């Protein structure tokens, strides 16, 4: 009940990337915050790693597609964590059990 949308929760647990800038110069690429709830972030990370090691699934195909495009694996794992949070919020908002979309 503390968070209105998944983006706020992503910021809270340290999944949302932020740019580090000062004035007009950008010092580095986007990074996730180290000030986070580490326990929840760890659980989300372990879930994302489990998805990356699965044999099938829509999140697994997303992971493989992004890595094949040349994205960094840790960046893609962070995106998978954000997608997991979005799905959790959808389940809570709709008050239903999660039903995966079966692609044939």
Fold topology:
Elements (H helix, E strand, L loop, with lengths): L5 H8 L3 E2 L2 E2 L2 E2 L4 E2 L5 H15 L5 H11 L4 H22 L10
Antiparallel strand pairs: 1-4, 2-3
Helix pairs in contact: 1-4, 2-4, 3-4
In short:
Helix 1 (6-13) packs across helix 4 and helix 2 (38-52) crosses helix 4 (73-94).
Specify Rg, calculated over alpha carbons.
Answer: 15 Å
Number of strands: 4
Overall structural class, as computed from helix and strand content, comes to mainly alpha
Largest sheet: 2 strands, antiparallel
Mean pLDDT: 86
Helix content, binned percent? 40-55%
- Principal-axes geometry comes out as globular
List the total number of helices: 4
Going across the biggest sheet, name each strand in turn. 1-4
Distance between the termini: 36 Å
- Strand % is 5-15%
Q: Indicate how many domains the architecture comprises.
A: 1
Poorly predicted regions are none
Give the helices and strands as they follow along the chain.
Answer: HEEEEHHH
Give a verbal description of the structure:
- The chain has 104 residues and is mainly α.
- The mean pLDDT is 86.
- The protein has helices spanning 6-13, 38-52, 58-68, 73-94; strands at residues 17-18, 21-22, 25-26, 31-32.
- The termini are far apart.
- The chain has one domain.
- Helices cover 54% and strands 8% of the residues.
- The longest helix has 22 residues, at 73-94.
- The strands form two sheets. Strands 1-4 form a two-stranded antiparallel ribbon.
- The protein contains four helices and four strands, in the order αββββααα.
- Strand 2 and strand 3 form a beta hairpin.
